[in-house]
């Protein structure tokens, strides 16, 4: 993008530890690192991370907007995400760029139409009620792990067409393979060396490919409502379709994209609702009213009428973004807010930081779902002040899927249980890859009489 004023050069990055740069600082407390960068340099700052010192950190909604809107097509996803987790999720939609990305996105959009979402929601309800029936209330119930199992069951139903096709042991192995792939993001040794995270991730990826390849012919043969089958049969408006390899690559990425993100959102919501009983009661009253009106398997439009749950979801995504940063690489020389960015620079785009900036939010650290109410709409302070689903051409394609899954699960949870969390509890987060509470997020859980 051309400007008339001379561009500022990026200063050299402060020295971090050899090999890992400041990755450990990020893992310990991402917000503290963001603040330090912002206070020291402003929205565009130099950084050294995971074996490279040619990173730039983009903070604040203006800088986030430049990278995500990508008006001059200077920023690419593929090389950046590939560096972090490429061998494990590569060739998923998020890893593709420009014309190829557009082609695949046009096809995949057909898997997320409103009619399709309605089918997925229909398949979620039995998975949720069966899963919740196995929850055993206790004073230190590990909500995060229970939710992770439950969202995997939901994925089995909506993505795979139900557990009839697969055994519980097989799905358990699939889950372990996903965890191995996700955890590889934090690997220090980024090569296939035995006993390392990277090695386990590669093994996990091979297993996932075998798994999806085994079931693919059956899905090609018969069209059903699950996402796997849908990917085998959809076409863009111009009649383009996915190859077998595409279907497998997209399934592996989609399972990852959907699973951890929804689990983190739900566990944050459980924490905040446990700490704010008046909000829990308000959400429950809406859920009970809906259940009385339409029963316990509401469709998409009915779920969308649960406005308090929606406010709580938005506020939870603001306070704890499941994807706190997204990555890009400059594929040509460019600039961000007056700073020259040379070709090949990697960028960390700090979505989470903008969501907690005092310039855009009142009392940003406070849980206050009403800030998203029609009267206040604080998220309108800047287009990129709230961007947990990203923005631009790579904006999350599963955003409405995620919203319906989280709302459906919360609806059942509120009807079946009540829970509390100590108001002073602060979740100890593991930030090595996507954030999650290291202590499994204990809540005091009680079953409600129906
Ligand atoms: C609360 C849950 C979720 C959050 C916070 C979330 C967040 C994100 C973000 C930030 C991106 C953009 C990445 C980038 O710009 O590089 C993204 C992309 C994507 N997400 Fe999600 N996601 C969630 C759930 C889901 C679900 C449930 C699905 C699928 C069922 C999904 C599918 C995708 C896909 C396909 C992309 C790539 C889009 C593209 O590159 O064109 N996500 N997500």
CATH topology: Cytochrome p450
- In total, how many domains does the architecture comprise? 1
* Distance between the ends: 61 Å
- Helix content range: 40-55%
**What proportion of the residues form beta strands (DSSP E)?**
5-15%
CATH H level: which superfamily?
A: Cytochrome P450
3D shape: globular
Question: Which ligands appear in the coordinates?
Answer: protoporphyrin IX containing FE
The profile of the biggest β sheet is:
5 strands, mixed
CATH class equals Mainly Alpha
**In CATH terms, what is the architecture?**
Orthogonal Bundle
Give me the side-by-side strand order of the main sheet: 1-2-8-5-3
Descriptive notes:
The protein is built from 16 helices and twelve strands. A five-stranded mixed β-sheet has the order 1-2-8-5-3. The protein has a three-stranded antiparallel β-sheet with strand order 4-12-9. It has helices at 23-28, 30-41, 60-69, 78-89, 98-108, 114-133, 143-160, 168-183, 197-221, 227-233, 244-275, 277-294, 300-304, 307-319, 351-354, 399-416; strands at residues 44-49, 52-58, 75-76, 141-142, 326-330, 334-336, 339-341, 346-349, 417-420, 429-430, 436-437, 442-447. The chain has a single domain (23-376, 393-447), classed as Cytochrome p450. With 450 residues, the chain is α+β, with helices and mostly antiparallel strands. 50% of the residues lie in helices and 10% in strands. The N and C termini lie far apart (61 Å). Helix 6 (114-133) packs across helix 7 (143-160). It binds protoporphyrin IX containing FE. Protoporphyrin IX containing FE binds at residues 77, 93-94, 105, 254, 257-258, 261-262, 265, 322-323, 326, 388-390, 394, 396-398, 401-402.
